[in-house]
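To whoever is on call:

I kicked off a structure prediction for a single chain this morning and the downstream step that reads the tokens threw a length-mismatch warning. I double-checked the sequence; it's 390 residues and nothing unusual in it as far as I can see. Pasting both halves so you can look.
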Amino acid sequence: MGQEVRKKDKGSGAVFVVVVAAGQGMRLGMGIPKAYCLLGGKTILEQTLDALCACDLIMPERIQVVIDAGHQALFDNLRYLPEGLRPFCIGGDTRAVSVQSGLQALNLSDDDCVLIHDAARPFVPQDLIVRLVDALAEHPAVIPTLPLPDALKYRETLADANREGYCLAQTPQGFRYHALRAMSDNTAHDEAALCSAAGIPLYRIAGSVENFKITYPDDLIRAEKNLSETIYSAGFDLHRMDIKSAPQDIAVGGILIPHRFGLIGHSDGDVVLHALVDAFLGGIAAGDIGQHFPPSDPQWKDCNSQNFLEYARNRLQQARVVIRHIDITIIADAPKIGPYRQAMQERLCVLLGLAPKQIAIKATTSEGLGFIDAREAIASQVTVTLRRCV
């Protein structure tokens, strides 16, 4: 089940996006408006649109870019805009006016979801968008936030302030259109402030360190490094079948599949999750699954491998490494994987906080050769694409 089906099941309206690109962005110091500065061979604006369109929930024809009246020539010279993108509209002197312009250019119904996003956040993760839209099924206004990583001081006295009472706000911020259409305060810093002032409750979800905003020259350097800090890592696992066992369910890809044999393994023997763990740990040079969960340790006896996967994912987060894509190949003559492929993908999306587009699952046999074809074993090979956030 993809995100579109899940969205309909929750009764959500369509998902629209307003991308605010009407600012000058002079703090970047590049001499041209920030959205049109180059980043990895494209402009920052084009990179941001690419990141949005990578999510299955967002269609280019539902993205409204808002630009400054003086930037039309710059926009017209863009070469890598998503196919089907709506024509731009002109913003105003403040962010609030620009957002209102974008909303008016869209044909919105009260129940539609509207995401307001800064053009200068080109690394918005797909899973953040999915979580935002999921939350909008239950709440009229949703904002992603991060805790303050550093000590907080009062500027004048340098006395300590309690950072526990504060957080960092990110975009996209998500709203039901009915929560925005009556608001007209042109001085608000963002739409969440408008909702708060109007008494509309805000719901907070966890933001992403990957989703930083390009504002100063150092941010652009960091962004360039992010594009180049791509890591590829592989994992492999194989488990024997217990051909003397009674029929039982076996763990493959985080789900249970009925089979005529059980698996021989110290834990539950999930070859997909074990290969994923090795790929994640290898990506940060942190050893392999056997070092962290040795089969000689009785505490891992019959353990659910989802615990191992959670551990490896947490290690990635601690190393500031995010998952961009997973490619899984399951090698087995039996059981047949095809009927369970979608269930595996959905389960891995839940376990890893990813979108279906980020997880590919394939299956093959050993073409009549060896113990796999003899139905004595099952194997999995995994390749992951990771990005280190600097």
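Update from on-call: the warning came from a stale cache, not from the record. Cleared it. Sanity check on the structure: Residues 271-283 form the longest helix (13 residues).
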